[in-house]
């Protein structure tokens, strides 16, 4: 066995070994450097897959500085990395995931149920969020007036090509929500859909 075979080059550390090392590392500087390292070109499939797999380990490690975790949450399109960040202890990190428009809709949907209002709000405003989740958000009595106002414009001045029935259901739910502001209600009383006008007028 040659000396080289006994001492493999550090660059060829097996993926699982590097993953575990990064996942348990307490070296914030190393983790930060890794988080900010440019990804290999996608044409180099092996290197690209390896780098994105290792980013998952970095994203899931609380020793990675919070600003790096936020940066990954804002910029990464990879579900494996975003899933890790979506359960981060920091609400700022979860909020950045909730606002990331590369999210899968099931992942944003999960964040519309987050315990922290800012995270829920960001998820409800993400265009990836399903209509079912938007409707549930509009029905949530804990939702704040600003996000309800945002939802009240769906299909009218926002996302004008939205499915009419679904957008109308969301606006009607906003009209019935006890947290909806008087200003929003006044606009909903002029809504193009009679069922929304009726709901807003009942308040």
From TrEMBL:
Region (Disordered): 181-203
Coiled coil: none
Record-linked SUPFAM superfamilies: ARM repeat (SSF48371)
Name of the protein in question: AbrB family transcriptional regulator
């Amino acid at each position: 066995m040659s000396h080289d075979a006994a001492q493999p080059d550090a660059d060829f550390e097996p993926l699982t070994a590097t993953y575990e090392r990064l996942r348990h590392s307490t070296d914030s500087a190393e983790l930060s450097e890794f988080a900010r390292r440019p990804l290999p070109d996608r044409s180099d499939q092996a290197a690209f897959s390896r780098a994105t797999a290792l980013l998952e380990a970095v994203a899931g490690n609380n020793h990675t500085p919070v600003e790096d975790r936020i940066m990954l949450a804002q910029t990464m399109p990879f579900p494996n990395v975003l899933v890790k960040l979506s359960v981060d202890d920091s609400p700022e990190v979860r909020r950045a995931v909730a606002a990331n428009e590369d999210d899968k809709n099931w992942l944003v949907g999960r964040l519309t149920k987050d315990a922290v209002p800012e995270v829920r709000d960001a998820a409800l405003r993400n265009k990836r969020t399903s209509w079912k989740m938007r409707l549930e958000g509009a029905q949530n009595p804990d939702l704040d007036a600003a996000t309800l106002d945002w939802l009240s414009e769906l299909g009218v001045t926002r996302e004008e090509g939205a499915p009419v029935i679904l957008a109308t259901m969301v606006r009607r739910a906003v009209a019935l929500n006890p947290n909806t502001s008087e200003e929003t209600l006044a606009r909903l009383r002029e809504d193009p859909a009679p069922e929304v006008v009726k709901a807003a007028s009942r308040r």
